[in-house]
Amino acid sequence: MINDDIAAIIDKMKQLEQQLEDELESRHAEYSYQLKHKKVKFERAIRELHRKYRIGLIEFLRTAELSHVLTAPVIYSLIVPLAFLDVAVNIYQHICFRAYGIPRVKRGDYIVIDRHHLAYLNTIEKINCVYCGYGNGLIAFAREVTARTEQYWCPIKHARRVLAPHNRIGRFADYGDAEDYQETLARLRRELQEE
Fold it and tell me: What are the beta bridge partners of residue 42?
């Protein structure tokens, strides 16, 4: 059973997350854009202003640090394992989550690629933003899939502190609480299947 103090902290975190979302939403008007069907729309005058701030490709490449140029192939070489992870996680959840009755994670809720619409970015910067949006979104997507798996199979907190734990761990059984473990496991499986 969740400790009342922990439940209160989790509720406070949810409130803060909503407050952050509300604040981010208010920025849409400040920077003159709207979201319509997950697509960003800037006012024409703002798009023209953005273009004035774009650094051209030749200038961008001419002023690029040598370390950035030399490490770019290393950075982009990760696309192969990232793409493999993407395929593997999708196959995994389509097979296993269906078998366990766990709702599948919506990949599109985590992989957001929209910064390439910013007119103040040049082509290289846009490609970089697409790559980072994909990579970070994919890792967040994979994390949620594994967090749901952990909730289903082994919802026990760790004895040691975990840096940046996923948001499901607060409801897990306490480490060493043998008495309530089976009850907690059954409850968390039901909750997961009802999501």
Answer: 33
